[in-house]
Amino acid sequence: MAKVKSNELKTKEKPVDFILVVTVLIMLSLGVVMVLSASSPSALSESGKPYSYVKTQALSAVLGLGLMYIISKIDYKKYKKFGKIAYICTIIALLLVLVPGLGKSSKGAARWIRIGTSLTFQPSEFAKVALVIFYASYLTNHRDELGKFFGGFIKPLLFLIPILGILVGIQSHLSASVLIILIVVVMMLMAGSKLKYFITFGSIRSYSEEEAYYMCLPNILILVHID
Asked: Which residues contact 132 (CB under 8 A, 6 or more apart)?
């Protein structure tokens, strides 16, 4: 009986996606090498140690691989119930940069949180993962609305406004904002939102405000009428 149970447990385990693992390892290795080539001169001039920055990056890479292995053992469906919590925690984490003694500013940008005396953490990195969990949960729960203009386009994007407001207005972190927008847009399209809404919105942004009103507003009204 023990052998039968052990065999059943083995069959339930999902196979390892070697293509994904190899891709992650290659990208991680390239990232470490690029950090080494880009930071060694400045690290040598600042501290006399050319590998000071790359050591921190390599340590983070090892910790990331360990965390990746742990997370891979958790059923992704269990994350669904944490969607709202992930969104709230994202806003709180992004605002922590404003806390005196905890947030760290550099060259006019407040993007970091102090961890101990020497380590720093960008809450925008946490936001990328947390928003994936939130939008995966939200889009799954509202899949019936995704084909409509408001429910499948406007409503999901409204949740991005506070996030982008903090990232751009407070942290001056435009690159993270663009990346988060791309992630959310791809998730929405994969979930079932219609591409024509994004194209129409993009065409509006390409014109001036007056031109957009007279030239693109009828297109939106037609799309809403079709739905």
From this structure: 183, 187
Contact (Cβ atoms closer than 8 angstroms) between residue 55 and residue 32: no
Question: pLDDT tens, 135-172?
Answer: 999 999 999 999 888 998 999 999 999 999 999 888 88
Q: Which residues does 101 contact at the CB level (< 8 Å), separation at least 6?
A: 114
Q: Are strands 109-115 and 119-121 parallel, antiparallel or unpaired?
A: antiparallel
Q: What is the rounded distance in angstroms from the CA atom of residue 111 to the CA atom of residue 119?
A: 13
Q: Tokens 């999901």 correspond to what residue?
A: 156
pLDDT digits (tens, 9 = 90+) for 76-122: 888 888 999 999 999 999 999 888 888 888 777 788 888 877 778 88
Distances (CA, A) of 151 to 148, 154, 183, 196, 224: 5, 6, 18, 14, 11
Q: Which residues contact 201 (CB under 8 A, 6 or more apart)?
A: 153
What value does the mean pLDDT take over residues 116-129?
A: 85
Tell the burial category of 124 from Cβ atoms under 10 Å away from its Cβ (0-12, 13-18, 19+). Answer: buried
Tokens of 101: 């003694």
